[in-house]
Amino acid sequence: MSPADLAFVDPGRGRGPADRLGLAFALCTLPWLGFVPDEVAAAPPVARLAEQLRVDPEVIRSYGRRAKTRTDHLRLVAQYLIPTEAPQRVDAARRPGVGFAADGPCTP
Predict the structure, then answer these.
(1) Does any domain span residue 98?
(2) Based on CB atoms within 10 Å of each CB, which residue in 23, 40, 72, 85 is the most buried?
(3) Is there a domain that residue 100 lies in?
(4) What DSSP line would sit under 64-84, residue for residue?
(5) Which residues contact 96 (CB under 8 A, 6 or more apart)?
(6) Which long-range contacts (CB under 8 A, 24 or more apart) does 70-78 make?
(7) How many domains does the chain have?
(8) Long-range contact list for 80-84, CB < 8 A, 24+ apart?
């Protein structure tokens, strides 16, 4: 993740470790997959992202217990990635297999 990406998920914005890791996961998967998978706990990028964020990867298990958290984070990520198109594209990105591909902030 770039310095700008790290600032985007910064804990100074009132986010705890689980929210930061979940938001980072969304930031890295949305551009590549076009959606954010529901099951994130076993996803390989989680450990790498946790290391970059200096959090325990196990905190991802408590991420998004409220569906609204995941939806809010998806909107934030879409706005961060494509500020002018985010409102129209966020609903498409919520459907598996439908969305957009772009040069993302995280490389596989």
Answers:
(1) no
(2) 23
(3) no
(4) TSSHHHHHHHHHHHHHHH-TT
(5) 35
(6) 70/22, 70/26, 70/36, 73/19, 73/22, 73/23, 73/26, 74/26, 74/30, 74/36, 76/23, 77/23, 77/26, 77/27, 77/30, 77/36, 78/30
(7) 1
(8) 80/8, 80/27, 81/27, 81/30, 81/31, 81/105
Instruction: Please check the confidence at residue 95 and state whether its pLDDT lies above 70.
Output: no
Q: 93, 78 in Cβ contact below 8 A? A: yes
Distance CA 73, CA 57 (A): 18
- What pTM value is reported for the model? 0.71
> Are the CB atoms for 64 and 84 separated by under 8 Å?
no
Rounded Cα distance, 84 and 62, in Å: 31
pLDDT at 66: 83
For residue 1, what are its two tokens?
């993740």
